[in-house]
Amino acid sequence: MTTTGRVSVAELTEIRAREPARIRDAWENRCLRPLVRDDGRLLLVAADHPARAALGVRDQPRAMASRVDLLGRLVTALSRPGVDGVLGTPDVLDDLLLLGALEGKVAIGSMNRGGLQGATFELDDRFTAYRARDLAANGLDGGKMLTRICFDDPGTVATLEASAQAVTELAEHGLMAMVEPFLSQRRDGRVVNLLDPDSVITSIGVASALGASSAHTWLKLPVVDDLPRVMEATTLPTLLLGGDPDGDPRDTYASWGRALELPAVRGLVVGRALLYPADGDVAAAVDIAADLVHGGAS
After folding, report:
1. Is the pTM of this model over 0.70?
2. How is residue 62 annotated by DSSP?
């Protein structure tokens, strides 16, 4: 039996079967913290990939298939002092809550997971997880929405409308709306995100205007070439995503470090690159990212 925090991983199913109200009670009694602290920066670990049928890491297509393994990696990451919190779907966050890993941590709920990777409907990205009122009721800190914009796919307009509604509702509750925009295309039956600077700038313009208020809107953007020019496209606080961890990790860390020097860049939201590092040392990878984000203050 692996024991982490409040209960053991082995007890999770028993609790869900016999005492589901413990999840509600745990959300109501969770120790909270401000969204950002004195340095105004955030390091969040992302764990919402499985809900979109995206289980692969590098050359391992089923790397994220084991929930027990994933939870162990997340608990390790969240135990490191420089990690501010986590981004996840309700199933993952409820597990982490029961394990005691979310006390005093930022919790961001992933909202639209209906655009499954590889599906014909991938760009019609329905909101199938959290709603704004659920996030507010459970004391979470915000909601994240993937917002892919494809000029040749009619599913885009439904996603834009749903994202705008979510931004409005999150603002009404005073919660962060984390919008992750991409200009996208279909190539050989696959959705490909365009990562050239001008495409990212275009996506920023569309995403920034979603909803009736931008007061609580943050962006989640990729690290791309000519990032200083890209970041001139917005005044919204921005977190950078880690993406698929290909290549030398030292190059990845160097690119994050350069990006974090830009004023609008306020931190990182990284999943696979920290949870599944090439050398397997989750704690070391997280500590490097924390030092980049918080400048050693962690």
Report:
1. yes
2. T
